Structures are given as structure tokens and as C-alpha cells.
Amino acid sequence: MSRAESGSSATTEETGKYPHRWRVLALCLLAGFMTLLDVSIVNVALPSIQQGLDAPSVALSWVISGYALAFGLVLVPLGKLGDAHGRGRMFLISLAAFTVASGLAGIAQNPVWLVVARLLQGAAGGMLNPQVLGLIQQQFHGRERGTAFGLFGAVVGISTAVGPLLGGLIIELAGAQHGWRWVFFVNLPIGLAALVVAARIMPRGVGDRRLRGADVLGVSLLGAALVCLLLPLVDQEGFAGRPSWLLWAAVPVLLSLFVTWEHRYSRRGGSPLVDLRLFRISSYTFGSTLGMLYFAGFTSIFFVLAVYFQRGLDYSALQAGLSLTPFALGSAVSSALSGRAVHRLGRKVVLLGLAGALLGVLSTEILLARHQGSAAGLVTALPLLVGGVGSGLVISPNQTVTLSEIDVTRGGTAAGIQQTGQRIGTAIGTAAASGLFFATLPRGYDTAISHGLLVAVSFVAAAMLVGLLELVVTRRRGGTSAG
User: Fold this and answer.
1) How far is residue 23's CA from residue 38's CA, in Å, rounded to a whole number?
2) CB 351 within 8 A of CB 464
3) What tens digit of pLDDT does each residue of 189-214 get?
4) Contact, 391 vs 326, CB < 8 A?
């Protein structure tokens, strides 16, 4: 596949340096923080939602799972939409939609209203994130791109880990009855201010006209495959006792039909939803696989630890969030500093980070397997800090290397595919860790947390194996990993 220069129809704004790129980056980081924060912040607000709306457990499940499902479903098609019609324009539309959906969620009068608002919010978040990554790739090159992705990686780490802390603090200040509303209302002033600034400085590129065209069948097949895969994972309570395997059996069939159709549609001269030539780029294929496996381990850590701290040790939501803060701090610092290193060392930085993350999580598991009582949050602070530092050297450097050889005109689509893999990894990892945690809970919380964290360790180790395999393959070809 050709590089950015091949996109002759792209405007100068889409391929060259944009004078306001650092301001654009600030907006991208803010938008990314908002959408990713809403994945985790709502978890600690569920008791408040139940009290304030008298919501049944199935509605609470869909408040969480509906956001994740809608987010994952739209990443690829709306990433391509930004490539085709201009990422600056799509950024504004999706940010406005996310802000409005947040307001609708905050004023919800009944559980159904809230679930629908969360579906809209998830779809808007899934629409926004590919534009963010596409804009970073579009506006920055060389060392600057590594720095920009490093800062975005810091946002990913902070938003994931700080969500429970911030949610607990909001509930503490606003009260249990209506505190959950402010979990959503907090997005309104931030979103409105960002929209005002974005309307002035976002690039006005019109996108690549060659990518325009509705691949309706491709969108339908991929969407159906993702629903069959993700729905039983994100809505475990709703599928308890139901034959989930029937949906999972349909996934390979639907994906085979999707790949066949995309090949045929491309040969006919159409603009397919996914240009399958992306997967001929080894750095992209290895990086996307590594990212999916790492997110399966990375996000499951927070789920099982949050449950363990709150239910097993009777920590408040705020105390549980504080106990996870060392991971967030370590991740933020190392992510911000990783940009220069990845430009020189490529995927080797990711392997170093995976080693650190593996050491941190494994140490946490070993310490918690021995009953620590109420001091567990303090005892695990150092290993979680180490794990966070390692994580910061994984997420953003992997993003940089994975997209390094992608034609910038297809950056949104490529980022959408990559993030879809991360959402799949998140769903699989959380389902596996929570399933094993609750299956072993009758033997005590110490046993349950040990088994839950072993799932995270396994996925992180699998991600490291993928990184090592890429290193071997690259050396045999006589090349070096892309930086």
C-alpha cells in the first residue's frame, strides 16, 4: 500500500503540517478523555442510578453494556466516513452528538430513557475516537507523531484508571439520590467549550472523495458479526443460561462472508468498508493483534480489583478509586515520555512495556493471594505503579508503530479497525476475568482475586508473545520494526 503521498486528491491540510496542530491535539485529547472516561466512570454510579430511578438490574446492565456495544459497532464505518468527508467536520458532529447525549442521560426520567441515551452516547463516542486518532496521524509526522500518540496514551491510561475515582468523588459530593446525574452533566461544560474552540481551529479538509460510497452490505455483515460476538460478552447477565454459543458460531460465517464481499466489491471498483490490503502490512497486523490481547488484560485488571476492593474489603467507591491511582499515575508519566523512545526503537519499547506490565500485575496477584486485609490498597501501590509505567510504554507506542506505515488518507478507517479489536479484547478479557472471579468466589475473595488477575496476566503474556514473534519475523526479513 502506498503512503500519504499517494493520496493525490487529499488537500494540503490533510497531508501537511497544520499551524494549529498542537491546539487540535489538545482538543483531541480532551475528547478522547471524555469518551473513554464514560466507559469506567459509570460503574461506580450504578447504585446511585438504581436508587434514583428505581432501575431493575437488567437496565443497569444495559447502562454499561449498551455504551460498550454501540461504541464498538460504529468505529469502522464512521472512521471511514471521516476519511471520506473530512475528519475535522466529523469531529465537530460527533462531539456535538456526544455532548447532547450526555445531557439526555443526565436528565433521564426512567430507566428506558437512560439506556437509550447511553446507546446514543456510545455511538457518538465510537464516532469520535477514529477522528481523534486520524487527526493525530494526519497532523503530526516523525518525532512529533510519537509525542502526540504518547500524550494520547497517557489519556487512555488516566481515563481508564481515574474513572472510578472521579465517579466516586462526584457521588460523594452530590449525594446518592442524584449524584449519578452529575456523572453525565460533567461532560456538558467541557463539550460545549471544546465545540466553540473546535469550530475555529479544526482543519477544513473535505476528505478523500475516492473513499466515498455506501458499502451497505459490508457494513451490515461486519455489524452483524460484531453483535453476535460482543452481545453475549457485554451483557453477561442477560445471556446467563442462554445458548451464547449459537451467536458465536455465526461469527466466523459472517466474517467469511464479509471478507468475500469486500474482495468482490473492491474488484468491481467500489469503495469497500475495509481495505483488506491493510492487513498485508505486517506492522499493522501484528500491532492490532497485540493491542487486542493487551486490552483484554489491561482493562480486566480494573474490573476485578474494583470489585475486590469494594465488595471484598468494603472500600468505598472513592477508596477503591484511590487504590487504583498508582497505575494511572505510572501510565500517564511513561506514556508522555514514550514518544521519543518509540521513534528510535519501534516495537522494542512496547516489549519493554509489556515486561513491566506483566511484572506489575503478577506481583499484585501474588501479594493479594496472601490475605492483606484492609491494607491491600497500600500493599499493592508499588506493583500497580510498576504495572502502570509498563502500560504507558505499551498503548501509545503500539499505536504509533501500528499506524506508521498506513496511508494517512485511510487513517480513520485503520484506527477504527484497531480500536474495534481493542473493544473486542476488552469485552473478552472482562468476561473471562469476571467469570473466573465469581466462579471461585465461594472459596473466598482472596482466591477469587488471584484467579481473576491470572486472566489479566495470561492476556498480557500472550500480547508479549505476539510482539516477540513480530521481532523474529522482521529480523528474518532483514528489516526493522517501523518507528
Assistant:
1) 23
2) yes
3) 999 999 999 998 888 776 656 666 66
4) no
